[in-house]
Amino acid sequence: MDLKKKTIKVGILTISDTRTPSKSNIDSFDSSGQNLMKLINDSNVIESAKVVQYDCVTDDIDKIQAKMTEWCFERKVDVLLTTGGTGFSPRDVTPEATLGLVQKLTPGISQAIMNESLKITPMAMLSRAVSGIYEKTLIINLPGSSKASKECLCVVASAIPHAVSLIKDEKEISKQFHKQLDFMTNNESRIPECVTKIACRHRESQFPKISMKSALSILKEHAVLQYTENNKIKYPTIWIFSTGDELESNKDSHGGYIRDTNSVMIQQILEQDNYKGHIFNYGIIRDNWNDLCKHFEEAFSNADVIVTSGGVSMGEKDLIKHVLKEHFKSQIHFGRVNMKPGMPTTFVTLIFKDKKKYIFCLPGNPVSAGVCTHLFLLPYLRSVSGNKLIIHSLKAKLTHSIKGLDIRPEYRRSLLKYENGELYVSCLSNYQQSSRLLSFIDSNCLLQLPSSSKQANVESSTIMDVILIKSIENTYIAPILKEMNLCIEIIKKEVITGNTKIEQPLLYSCIEDVLHLMTENIIVAKTEIIPTSSAMGYVSYSPINSSENLPPFQASIKDGYAIKYESYWFQKSNIFNVVQVSVAGTVPGYQKEIGEGECARISTGAPIPPGANCVVQVEDTSVETKSSDGKVEITIAILKEPKLFENIRSIGSDISIGQRLLDQKTILGPFEIALLRSVGCEDVEVFVCPSIHIIPCNDNSAYAISHKLKNMLKVSDFKGNIFSHSLRKNLIKFTEQFDCVYDDGNPVIIFCGRVNEFCTVESHIHITNNTRKISLGFGRMFVGCEEKSVVFLHINTCDSESIYNCVHLFILPFLRFISGRKKIISSIKTKCNLTSDYLPTDKFEKAELHYENGDFKVTCFTMNHQSCLVNMPSSLDHINIKWKTEKKTELDTIVTENSDYYFIHY
Predict the structure, then answer these.
(1) Which residues fall within 8 angstroms of residue 571, CB to CB, at 6 or more apart?
(2) Chain Cα centroid distance, residue 164
(3) Where residue 785 falls among pLDDT bands split at 50, 70, 90?
């Protein structure tokens, strides 16, 4: 609502003894307060509001009240939001501080927050938060957790503008609010008969199947690139939720419930794709008309793009399309796509409060949701983010023939490998059902298969189109990694006498040798147990097996009718009495046994009633008789003979107890985490990523090195914390001055600049190759009498090219190795246009890597995005020979960053 666009001034006060606004220490960073600020300033969760005051104070009543009085009495803020200090501990005094000031309580706001919070977690009853009015300011206490404070603010955000207008006695704005509220109330859509009368529902979808090409063309028309001030891109805010009465979010799900994996999976796919806009995961919405209307309206008020999973098929509880069309009068651009999996995928737009909203309604089956996120949502978001390439599509040679194609064009989970300059794809023939998340684990791409109406089979060695969803599996090792001609000096220091001894240099060593030296007996791998929801990018420490069956009961694959099938079908009547209903969420064991001539109306994912042994899909039935009000079926006719166990998922058919889910040293991505969560695995043991401490030494030029180094590490895939320290003129007292560094778990210290005194260093190794600009030292340091050892690395150059080479050839591979990664450095063969003009030889050259017409290619000597190191040929004669014979010189390339054209993660 407009409310004449008067700016509402908001103050955010974080109350905690440990939280600070500084990002230097992630453990004390005030994530809750900063997140609330982003919600208000960037996502407009409170209409026309802006955060004008922000501070952190300790859990002290006097200090809290002093800050509140300053902001409220001096009219600095219209709304004061506190976060933290609302619990049961002795230090939680925020409610007492608030009650000591407010002149009027606002119990409705507090009650609304409590009611909605209890729907999310029963632990909400342990909050003592209050709200009230002091002077002309509305004060609302919010929890200290970032997630809980966001959820609580969203509950009351829409009412805050009107509350402020009432407190300030702005009568005209108040009248406008009530006028708009009356309009919305009088025009609220009622549930249409097509939803309430199950017997009258469509037996087939009213939406035509459109081609994938047409669907992407529609999305392209709506992918409008928006710019904010100074020509900066405005990234849409995204709101994600799952729908389904059968879903549970906590680890104690039981009975007929299944765990919600889709909302977290979709969010993490976007995060893995480095989407820069705000993403909010709202969790689960029940299959209820009024709940869906309410939560859609809340989503439209807070976000630009809404993503749902579930509720878009033809079942009794599939209400999403009806709600959007009937209640919100939206435009459904497509409601089915001719593809497998993901046919019910729906794209909708509407105007809400003069702003256009974009809704992606994805299927509820987890595989379908994952596939469609990659095929529809990511291309749209890449387009509105200004990316030139919106689908990561490659061409690869099929390693085997494929028979028995589906009538719909299919996107099969497959494995893409890079071997000696060629891409090969192998289809995972089994486990392609849309409920089986396990099929994602051994795959990294979607293989595009044609419809059986166009061809019957696909022959081996056919060049196929694939779409990447993970990193390419790379088996190629460039010769340069084995023939680096490195000079290695081992420098030992005798601590007692202070003498330094240099061993005879080792020549012609390769990167593999150096990495072996760097990791051998230098650091002991450590692990920690973390929540699976926070584990993306980490590496699993040990193999993980399932402790549950999935599904835990016999479940229906389709919407239809569960019957008891007899082999002498042709002698029986095809008319069945509908005696019960089984929907997703129905508890197994509380159902009536199905007898001959009886059936149960059943939804996808619902448990099979006792006695039933097959499910007939809705499309193969017709209604014979209805109830007097026309709402339900009394009898139905089955139009074609079914098959025994047709459309039924057996117990443990997706995952069985004891089945291997993940191998040791598996990188945890969105699909891996979704798989673990689907069987109740809430925590996972992972390799600890060490903290990096960058310490410039001796002279100011070391600052330049440390700055460049930190920037390179930040854009890498490294998951550990990175800390920068001030310049150190003398390292003699290093141990005493940096106890905090040594106490930081398993740190890696990187010295920048000239280090003349390694008083605590037992030994270190120095690696050089002058022609390729490599100069790096590493070793182990002992700390005090406890003899705790830490790893140190040493870069003694300010040259950007040398730092870049050392980081990508040695430092990052070393960090990846000690973080549990199997693949620590990636190399490929590329093609490059080189002429006989002056060219640098026998060195590494930064270049731009891209994929074009089936080949990886590089562009050297460019100032564009530099994403690789090219091994330049050893001589101009070599280049000229290549040029004359091949026109394109084939070069070995070390991948340093990902590109819009491909994923090569480590």
Answers:
(1) none
(2) 37
(3) low
- C-alpha 550/C-alpha 433 separation (Å) is 13
What is d(CA 491, CA 478) in angstroms, rounded to the nearest whole number?
Answer: 30
3-state helix, strand, coil in the chain (%, to 5): 25, 30, 45
Q: Which of 250, 252, 282 is nearest to 266 (CA)?
A: 282
Compute the C-alpha angle 62/63/69, nearest 5°.
85
- Token pair listed for 217: 């063309």
Average pLDDT of span 162-172: 83
Least confident interval from 102-111, 261-270, 303-312, 808-817 = 808-817
Kindly give, in sequence order, each residue whose CB lies less than 8 Å from that of residue 148, ignoring residues fewer than 6 positions away: 117, 124, 142
Cα atoms found within 13 Å of the Cα of residue 5, Cβ hemisphere only: 1
Nearest Cα residue to 829 out of 479, 463, 550: 479
Tokens 């109330």: give the residue: 185
Rounded CA separation 718/293 (Å): 42
How confident is the model at residue 782, as a pLDDT?
Answer: 65
- Write down the H helix ranges in 121-192: 146-156, 160-167, 171-186
E-strand spans in 796-884?
A: 827-832, 844-852, 855-860, 868-871
Q: Give the N- to C-terminal CA distance of the chain in Å, as an integer.
A: 48
Contact 472, 444 (CB under 8 A): yes
Per the CB < 8 A criterion, the answer to whether 222 and 640 are in contact is no
Highest mean pLDDT among 18-27, 281-290, 332-341, 747-756: 332-341
> How many Cα atoms within 13 Å fall on the side-chain side of residue 180?
12
Amino acid present at 190? R
Annotate 367-388 with DSSP letters as a single string: HHHHHHIIIIIHHHHHHHTT-S
The DSSP annotation for 571-604 comes to GS-SEEEEEEEE-TTPPTTSSPPP-TTEEEEE-T
Find the helix or strand (DSSP H, E) in which 411 lies. Answer: strand 410-419
Contact 774, 809 (CB under 8 A): yes
Q: How far is CA 788 from the centre of its chain?
A: 37
- Cα distance between residue 207 and residue 346, in whole Å: 10
Could you report the per-residue pLDDT of 490-539, keeping only the tens digit for each? 877 654 445 666 666 666 678 878 888 887 755 667 899 999 988 999 99
Beta-carbon count within 10 A of 145 CB = 15
User: What letter does residue 548 receive in the DSSP assignment?
Assistant: S
pLDDT of 880 higher than 80:
no
Q: What is the mean pLDDT of residues 45-55?
A: 90
Which helix (H) or strand (E) is 143 found in, with range?
A: none
Which amino acid makes up residue 492?
Answer: K
- HSE of 831, CA atoms in CB hemisphere, 13 A: 12
Residues 860, 865, 868: CA angle, nearest 5 degrees: 55
pLDDT bucket at 24, cuts 50 / 70 / 90? low
On the question of pLDDT at 187 being above 50, the answer is no
Alpha-carbon gap, residue 94 to 127, rounded angstroms = 11
In this structure, are strands 500-502 and 527-531 parallel, antiparallel, or unpaired? unpaired
Give SS3 for 235.
Answer: coil
> Which residue type, as a one-letter code, is found at position 387?
N
- Contact assessment for residue 858 and residue 832, using Cβ atoms and an 8 Å cutoff: yes
Q: How many angstroms separate the Cα of 86 from the Cα of each of 55, 89, 96, 902?
A: 17, 9, 9, 48
Rounded (5°) CA angle 632-634-636: 105
- Dist CA 132 CA 130 (whole Å): 7
Give the dihedral of Cα atoms 92, 93, 98, 101; nearest 10 deg: -170
Token pair for 448: 């595009």
Alpha helices in 45-106 (DSSP H): 61-73, 94-99
Per-residue CA distances from 394 to 96, 389, 610 (Å): 62, 12, 48
Structure-token pair, residue 152: 């609580």
Q: What is the pLDDT of residue 183?
A: 44
Beta strands in 286-427 (DSSP E): 305-309, 331-334, 346-352, 355-362, 393-398, 410-419, 422-427
